[in-house]
Design brief:
The protein is an all-alpha fold. The chain is 93% helix and 0% strand. Helix 1 runs antiparallel to helix 2.
Length: 57
């Protein structure tokens, strides 16, 4: 289960980065902001999973 959630976090980060880059390329500030938010959400999810792993050991 933890590996699945870590993968989900990485996918979320990649999608956010892609949205942010696309938003910058076309000059769409909302798309850029959405991408940043999605990437941050992925970062937080990954940090949570890493913290859980640290406490398990």
């Amino acid at each position: 289960m933890a590996a699945e959630k870590k993968t989900q976090a990485k996918v979320e980060q990649a999608k956010g980065t892609a949205k942010e880059t696309a938003g910058r390329a076309v000059g769409n500030e909302r798309l850029t902001a959405d991408g940043r938010a999605e990437r941050a959400k992925g970062d937080m999810r990954e940090a949570k999973e890493k913290a859980k792993d640290a406490f398990r050991r």
